[in-house]
Amino acid sequence: MISQQLNDLITRIGPDTAAGAVHRKYWQPAALTDELPDAVAGEPPMLPVNLLGERLVLIRDAAGALSLATREAAADEPPAHHPARADIKLVAGGPTYPVVEKNGICFAYLGGGDAPAFPNFDCFRAPESHVFAFKGLWQCNWLQALEIGIDPGHASFLHRFLQDEDPSDGYGKQFRDKAANTDMPITQVLREYPRPEIKVEETDFGLKITALRHMDGDLTHVRVTNQIFPSAICIPMSREMIITQWHVPIDDENCYWYTMFTSFQNPVDKAVMRAQRLKEHSLPTYAPLKNRANNYHYDPAEQKSLTYTGMGLDINVHDQWAVEGMGPIQDRTREHLGRGDAAIIRYRRMLRKAIKELETGQAERLPMQDRQATSQLVGPLSNDAITGSEDWLAASLAADQERRSAAPWDAHI
User: Fold this and answer.
1) Residue 60, SS3?
2) Which residues form the LigXa-like C-terminal domain (predicted)?
3) Both 131 and 214 in a single domain?
4) Is the full-model pTM beyond 0.90?
5) Would you list the DSSP string of 208-259?
């Protein structure tokens, strides 16, 4: 457990907060490219954006360049509100921020001074044909949204499927594939081996998290995921795809997850993946159709025979229920962390260290602030594999290299 003062320190992200200052030193997703409207009567496209506690508007000028400007808004404006174009009023002389488009997401930098470089991660260097971007609204603080993503153990419980689907029908869905080097569905692995050994290593970009599920027959399931500082994760979706997901604060009590689905070998079927996700979300806010108001469509009959949660097959709904159920801001003064929370503990230490370094004028010591070094970062490795228990590390690396070698784009590391 931690004190209320410390919980406030690491969760609050407004313009005058310590954790907010850290977030502003990094490129943050501000909108999907698809969200930008067309120009109206010769006026530039404008999209309202609420980001890091600020009311902003995304603007594309006549030359095609993007920027974020400050706009006027009522103090009680809903977090995902989209006012009409005629109601958008810019703040005269207000700050503007640079914006860069990357494979379907518009990233903004709110930190002042020189913006950091983008790492050469797979989601950024893959061609547009191999990346699909989407987002969703969660009504909770960004930190609890991130922390569920760096907890390898939760998948064996929260995402427990009592029946294993045919992996050939699982395109575009997580935990529907078979683990590399085996015919065992990932859902079966997670269900039958729920208590992984967790190893956490600090990296130049954040954390590498390895979950080892020791299986019968002297086999080990190796699942490698990553925390990308300050608020993103990179995890395997299938043998073909990885997920890079940012947990972006709208304000202290709401956040968006932005995801890039990156395919190594084949182009992404964007129409299929978008249709899958629009069955669960409403536009233009990208709010989930299953939510607290309708009890996340909980079905006790389903819970008996199909899923642990009884809330359908979309794992985003499971995660949403878990993180929103903690309240707008999780009360960490009452928690009791254990060995399974190794990555969460290590991440909080990283965040507190970054806060201290920024407050003492040592911003260059934050992860990925060296432009040259950051631009040369590749990967990260994110995959599932089953192998002999003694050579799990080599097998994990080999599985990663195998799919990279089949990519028609430069995926080498």
Assistant:
1) strand
2) 109-374
3) yes
4) yes
5) EEEEEEEEGGGEEEEEEEEEETTTEEEEESSSSEEEEEEEEEEETTEEEEEE
